[in-house]
Amino acid sequence: MTVHQLHHPPQKSLPTATSGAAILEFTYEEPEENGPESREPLCKLKSFGTKAETLAALQPLIHFATVPNLLFFSVAEWNTNPADIILEIGHRFNYEPVVFRSSALNEDGDKQSQAGAFTSCLDIDSGDPQAVRKAVQEVINSFDGCSEDQVLVMPMLTGVTMSGVIMTFVIDSGAPYYVLNYDDESGKTDTITGGTGVNKTVLVHRDFASGHVDSPRVSELLNLARELEGLCERGTPLDIEFAKTQDGQLHLLQVRRITVQENWNRRISRYVGEALFQAEQFFENHSRRKPHVAGTRTILGQMPDWNPAEIIGTRPKPLAISLYRHLITDSIWQEARATMGYQPVPHTPLMLTLGGQPYIDVRASFNSFLPAKLPQITREKLVNAWLNRLETQPEFHDKVEFEIAQTIVDFNFAEDYLARYRGVLNHDEYREFRFELAQLTAANLSLDDKASLPIALRKIDQLEGIQSSQNKKSTIGTHLA
Question: Which of 87, 124, 255, 401 has its CA 20 to 30 A from that of 292?
Answer without folding.
Answer: 401
